[in-house]
């Protein structure tokens, strides 16, 4: 019988722990973590993501300051705002919602954020720290995924882990985290040959591709643990719904454990943003 890894329940527990920690920071230090959320343009999905993040902040008593800029904002204007937020000691985390409009170079913006305030963990210094195993701020989606894997599997040493996808925000950091758990890690991507065979070797299979139902049941090793990072909206008759990168229903007959979509990696990503914000705030305030 397949085990469903409940990311919603796990994220609620993580947020409960953070709420208690935030109450302690307020009571003992009169200190409130604060995140600045920057949204440029009108992308509907980005608006939904930002409102969900801000809602979670309110639930946990993290202060959030929203900066909504229109889609004609220049790179110089956005960089000036980042600079202001970097200088503001009452702001501990800065999140710039991606994607940014075409006239703005996302890399330049991400790398302009002070690394200690980069709660998304995308800054080149945080990426480099992760790559050498000196983790500072770890990207939220891979962090949430590894937390669930540690909780479910415990010791992963020597397991074969395959990550499908090599993006800087999911695939690559996920591979580094699995390596730190002493897994034997393979990264598969759009140029990988015989990807089905590569996947069949995985004790831990992480799908971060962005193609609905990309990973088929017969690519999965019997008993494997499957982390489905994908969030894809598909049309189902006259309704639309979210599906992952794994053919979940069929995969359930083969996998030992699997994260559902929705309710798996998604909620953990937001919880880990809260986790990173609290950790960054404490670090900046010098509070243990
Ligand atoms: P991306 O587009 O940046 O990267 C996709 C990766 O998939 C690339 O590295 C590419 O090499 C690989 N790929 C593409 N086509 C392939 C193919 N045919 N065969 C093998 N590999 C292929 O995407 P991303 O930002 O890494 O996101 C991946 C998925 O995860 C998307 O569905 C995204 O919506 C989802 N996502 C979810 C969360 C969450 O909170 N759950 C967070 C971030 C991303």
The secondary structure category is: alpha/beta
Instruction: Summarize the biggest pleated sheet.
Output: 6 strands, parallel
Q: Based on CA inertia axes, which overall geometry fits?
A: globular
Give the amount of beta strand, in percent: 15-25%
Helix tally equals 10
What is the N-to-C order of secondary-structure elements (H for helix, E for strand)? EHEHEHEHHHEHEHEEEEHEH
**Strand arrangement in the largest pleated sheet:** 1-11-8-7-5-6
End-to-end gap: 43 Å
Gyration radius, to the nearest Å? 19 Å
Q: Which molecules other than protein and nucleic acid are bound?
A: nicotinamide-adenine-dinucleotide
How many individual β-strands? Answer: 11
Folded structure, characterized:
By secondary structure, this protein is α/β, with parallel strands linked by helices. It has 2 domains: 30-115, Leucine Dehydrogenase, chain A, domain 1 (Rossmann fold, 3-Layer(aba) Sandwich), CATH 3.40.50; 140-266, Rossmann fold, CATH 3.40.50.720. It is 42% helix and 17% strand. The chain contains 10 helices and 11 strands. It has a 6-stranded parallel β-sheet. A 3-stranded parallel β-sheet has the order 3-2-4, sandwiched between helices. The radius of gyration is 19 Å and the shape is globular. The model has no long low-confidence stretch (mean pLDDT 98). The structure holds nicotinamide-adenine-dinucleotide.
